[in-house]
Specification:
about 20% strand; Rossmann fold; 8-stranded mixed beta sheet; alpha/beta; about 35% helix
């Protein structure tokens, strides 16, 4: 077991010249949990454990940051600055798929070969929120979840509506949706980093195959969700029956059940 992330085994996965630490736990169909900025925080690890407890084999790659280190302003700033200049990630381009997604597709393919089942799932968060969409180019990706997909950073009207995926990859995703594949997306309604226009693009391109979970974070909302709420499954998650974030978690887990169990 890993000393850095208790309950998970730690290994190294290498592809295309990049070697990264991957934490794994559980059994059943594979789900790739792609952490947000600043890294695999305790809250990200807690979400991954919930997926394990549901009956899935989780792969949790460390793309940046320090595993199990709690989020702080300084840590977030350092991680996002590093990620924005790294060539594996595309943070501003309108129609480019981040190179790291090829690495993630290969990780998912290996996990599927090892774990079996009809396919794999993935959930990206924040900076990585749209990565599961790019992973859909591989037909083994059956349960992609986009939690507060923040790229490209929404500077200007075009970027607010963009999906951070190449035109060719988007066409493949649209074809898969036309053939029945589904995509689940989540956001807080007042989150400026994930504009409503981005979800409108997903609705337009994927039609009824895009399942949107949009949580009211407007002023005076019934659940007291702060205006600045951003991370649906982690930092702003409230583990309380009937709370919108708990219902969102339940929807993610049931989505995995629907897509990944025969």
């Amino acid at each position: 077991m890993s000393e850095r992330l208790p309950g998970f085994e730690e290994s190294t996965f290498e592809h295309d010249g990049y070697a990264r630490q991957v934490f794994r736990a559980g059994s059943g169909p594979a789900v790739i949990v792609i952490h947000e900025v600043p890294g695999i925080t305790p809250n990200v690890a807690a979400f991954a454990q919930r997926v394990v407890d549901r009956g899935y084999s989780v792969r949790l790659p460390s793309l940046f940051g320090t595993p199990n280190k709690a989020a702080s302003f300084g840590y977030i700033l350092k991680s996002i600055t590093g990620a924005c200049v790294a060539k594996e990630f595309t943070s501003m381009a309108l129609d480019r798929t981040s190179p790291v997604i090829g690495w993630l597709r290969t990780l998912a393919a290996e996990a599927h070969a090892e774990c079996g089942g009809p396919g794999v799932g993935a959930v990206g968060m924040c900076f990585t929120g749209g990565f599961a969409l790019g992973m859909m180019v591989d037909e083994r990706m059956l349960a992609p979840v986009l939690s507060q997909p923040s790229l490209p950073f929404p500077f200007g009207k075009l970027r607010k509506a963009a999906l951070a995926i190449s035109d060719a990859d988007l066409e493949t995703v649209k074809q898969r949706a036309a053939n029945g594949a589904c995509v689940l997306g989540m956001r807080f309604t007042n989150d400026p980093v994930v504009p409503a226009a981005r979800f409108e693009t997903l609705r337009r391109e994927l039609g009824d195959q895009f399942i949107a979970v949009e949580i009211d974070s407007s002023k005076g909302n019934a659940h007291g969700i702060p205006k600045a709420a951003h991370s649906v499954l982690t930092e702003h998650f409230v583990d309380s029956p009937g709370h919108p974030t708990t219902l969102a978690l339940d929807r993610v887990l049931s989505f995995f059940d629907e897509q990944l169990h025969v």
